[in-house]
Amino acid sequence: MNNTICIRLLLCLFTGSLVSAQEPTKPPIAIAIHGGAGTILKKNMTPEKEQSIREVLSSAIHAGYELLQQGGSSQEAVVAAIHVMEDSPLFNAGKGAVLNALGEVELDASFMEGKNRNAGAVAGVRHVRNPIDAAVAVMESSPHVMLVGAGADSFAQAQGLTAVEQEYFITPARQKSLKRLQSKLNKAQAALTAEEDLFIRQQRYGTVGCVALDRAGNLAAGTSTGGMTNKQWNRVGDAPIIGAGTYADNASCAISATGWGEYFIRNVVAYDIAAQMMYGGRSLADAAQHSIHQRVAPLGGDGGIIGLDASGQITMEMNTPGMYRASIDINGTLEVKIYADE
Amino acid sequence: MNNTICIRLLLCLFTGSLVSAQEPTKPPIAIAIHGGAGTILKKNMTPEKEQSIREVLSSAIHAGYELLQQGGSSQEAVVAAIHVMEDSPLFNAGKGAVLNALGEVELDASFMEGKNRNAGAVAGVRHVRNPIDAAVAVMESSPHVMLVGAGADSFAQAQGLTAVEQEYFITPARQKSLKRLQSKLNKAQAALTAEEDLFIRQQRYGTVGCVALDRAGNLAAGTSTGGMTNKQWNRVGDAPIIGAGTYADNASCAISATGWGEYFIRNVVAYDIAAQMMYGGRSLADAAQHSIHQRVAPLGGDGGIIGLDASGQITMEMNTPGMYRASIDINGTLEVKIYADE
Fold first, then answer.
1. How far apart are CA B225 and CA B244, in angstroms?
2. CA A150, CA A135: separation in Å to the nearest integer?
3. How far apart are CA B24 and CA B46, in angstroms?
4. From CA B125, how far away is CA A160, in angstroms rounded?
5. B148 and chain A in contact, CB less than 8 A
6. What is the per-residue DSSP string for B195-215?
7. Distance to chain A for B112, nearest Cα, Å
8. Which residues of B touch A248 (CB under 8 A)?
9. β pairing state of B107-113 and B118-125
């Protein structure tokens, strides 16, 4: 090794140590995402599908994290991460969302910022390419928190958000799932095999979401979904309900939920976790465990949440066999996971 | 006084005292209703209008209370009381609901029972005569908690609920209010008189609701509304949102809210009160005060709530000059009030 190289190397090591010594003095940033919870079992997964899902989760979390690193807001990070999952046909949100009983998509999304508890939500939109953008637009550009159906689509278009035809969202895989589900539903319950019954129950799940903490100490949470396969009567789940599927408050935490929406609405899950922290002095992790295992589960519901508190602590809690998820914590450590026991 | 009369009198007194000694051993029943909170000022009210409103409130609370006395469930009582207010053109729910920007009604309602945290809600229905019935039907006869728009109307009709044309709901008084509001909105904000500005702000309010406790110890809560005058884009307020406008759990309380819906959603008001009781050990009264005055008000919102806990304690809290309201407490004492300082 000649002297020049040696000096360069020492300089590199020195610069490296300086950077790592400085890093902890910067306010923490952290981000977590989910791509839905449910009966996700290794035996039903091909290595290729698993690989594709991990790749999209990784792209999504990096899209958000890079913005946070550059000093972007938690809102920008949440929106960026959710865009990646909405644009991927692999997740039940945006492109590739599940189909309702008529073979169409109806999309729900919500967003909340922790700084001031501002929030926006849309339910049952059919033409906004990225429903999370519509939720943010409701928050920023209307006096309202929640718009639904055709009115929400009109509002989004008036705000200049990209509108697409239904064909954009609909994928052959979701058409196949809908047909398969409808044919199974035509069979008597008693005649269903265990696998078929599981398949029917699985249709309740699938949502994407993100929680983030930025350098300014602001939390944000967002959730986006196509809801349940074969849904009827303009059913709305927990994803667009502030307090149920999404909640953020710098005084407690940011939460995005996924699971059997009806149970998450009845238990006001996202806000229940925040309230335990505020009024009961519980940690985010303890509060999330209580909410999923002591409130949702005893009523017969299942699903999971991702949560982040103002110090950057991340929690992911579920009572399902799996939840697609990823996180980058305050130390910059990346995790991408699928199964509960991973 | 001859002996026979004397004996009869003594018997009467004896029986009377027996009855009053027995009454307290029966489990308590109680009920409270509201007909909306807002800028309700004595100077803007005619004695005739005040009288009519007090009469409907009185009919509504008695309709519910009589069912409770006969051993009916809190669900039956809540529905009966709300029916009276939905059917009256004086309140912003059902017949006489306010009109949206197109001069039509879009109605929202929700219901929750405290025994098992079952819940149902509809938003943006246009043809169900009594939207509270549709909320109950969603809870009882669908696997869902929330249905919106045309789907919710179809579901209600499939359940055999009475459907009516829009004309049934629309009253000349609400048409006049809409015209008046729209003409004021066409004026520049700076050109508005204080009275006109107040008139515009007032359009945010008006909802009916009921909370009840039955002899079996079960709480229930329901809320029904036409939302805001001149609303656009299928706006949904807090009334049909479980956790925001309505919540019930025997472990804490039953709540129905009314006010500036957006602030009640962002603060998850109904569940916030329950959570303070469960996790913070606060009384219903303290929790309600905190929610309205420390959470809603600091963000700029206003409105009120009615609440009832499992022991039958009633709370009515508001930060508006008035809230149409009535209650019959565990001692059978009736109160009918309009102004905050009554």
1. 14
2. 14
3. 41
4. 28
5. yes
6. HHHHHHHHTT---EEEEEE-T
7. 9
8. none
9. antiparallel
Burial of B6 (0-12, 13-18, 19+ CB in 10 A): exposed
Residue A112 contacts by C-beta under 8 Å, 6 or more apart in sequence? A118, A119, A120, A139, A220, A221, A222, A242, A246, A247, A248, A254, B266
CATH architecture of B30-98+105-118+169-339: 4-Layer Sandwich (3.60)
| Structure confidence by residue, pLDDT tens digits, A312-325 | 999 999 999 999 99
Distance to chain B for A11, nearest Cα, Å: 52
Q: Does A243 touch chain B (CB under 8 A)?
A: yes
The residue type of A129 is R
Compute CA distances A97 → A35, A146, B188, whole Å.
Answer: 12, 21, 44
Helix H or strand E segment including A22: helix A3-22
Q: Beta strand A118-125 with A235-236: parallel, antiparallel or unpaired?
A: unpaired
Which residues are CB-contacts of A84 (< 8 A; sequence separation ≥ 6)?
A56, A59, A60, A63
Integer Cα distance of A170 and B110 in angstroms? 32
| Alpha carbons A334 and A327: distance in angstroms, whole number | 6
Residue B222, H or E segment: strand B219-225
* Six-digit token string for B259: 């006010």
Q: Where are the domains of chain A?
A: 30-98+105-118+169-339
Q: Which of B258, B224, B249 is nearest to B112 (CA)?
A: B249
Chain-centre distance of CA B301, in angstroms? 18
Read off the pTM. 0.91
Task: Please tell me the distance from the alpha carbon of residue A331 to that of residue A24, in angstroms, as a whole number.
Answer: 8
A104/A126 Cα distance (integer angstroms): 8
CB atoms within 10 A of CB B298: 10
pLDDT in tens, A54-113: 999 999 999 999 999 999 999 999 999 999 999 999 999 999 999 999 999 999 999 999
